[in-house]
């Protein structure tokens, strides 16, 4: 009985945690990648900042506060901030030739204008992204 309860509690916590992460993804100003919405935003000429992340990636965790700082500074109706899960969105990774997690892209409409891989230096990462915004 105790094992069943423990198993139930662990599964419940995992499900609840996943739901919380999904809600935070859209509530904090970052959009979860959706192919249709992404293509539509590109066609409208929006500037799109893309964070290719993995939950298990320490470099991604180091980049997160820098990217969030930039998002708060530069959020506008013409700028979109999108998170792409490295483990789940293999088609996006192939299409854009993404070699690894912790890659940051900036698109001006359909044109990729910035690519940064594994950069955690605040000044360099901010400089690359701000140069495109």
Automatic annotation (TrEMBL):
The keyword Ribosomal protein does not apply. Residues 9-133 form the Thioredoxin domain. The keyword Membrane does not apply. InterPro entries: Thioredoxin-like_sf, Thioredoxin_CS, Thioredoxin_domain, Thioredoxin_H-type-like. It holds the Pfam family Thioredoxin. GO terms for molecular function: disulfide oxidoreductase activity. Residues 1-23 form the signal peptide. Keywords: Redox-active center, Signal. CDD domains: TRX_family. This is Thioredoxin family protein. It comes from Erythrobacter insulae. The lineage of its organism: Bacteria, Pseudomonadati, Pseudomonadota, Alphaproteobacteria, Sphingomonadales.
């Amino acid at each position: 009985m105790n094992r069943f309860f423990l198993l139930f509690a662990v599964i419940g916590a995992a499900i609840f945690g996943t739901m919380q992460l999904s809600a935070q993804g859209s509530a904090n100003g970052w959009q979860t990648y959706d192919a249709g919405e992404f293509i539509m935003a590109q066609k409208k000429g929006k500037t799109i900042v893309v964070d290719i992340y993995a939950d298990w990636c320490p470099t991604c965790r180091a980049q997160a506060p820098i990217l969030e700082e930039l998002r708060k500074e530069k959020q506008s109706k013409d700028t979109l901030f999108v998170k792409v899960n490295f483990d789940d969105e293999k088609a996006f990774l192939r299409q854009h030739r993404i070699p690894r997690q912790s890659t940051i892209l900036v698109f001006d409409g359909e044109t990729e204008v910035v690519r940064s891989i594994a950069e955690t230096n605040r000044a360099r990462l901010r400089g690359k992204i701000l140069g495109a915004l």
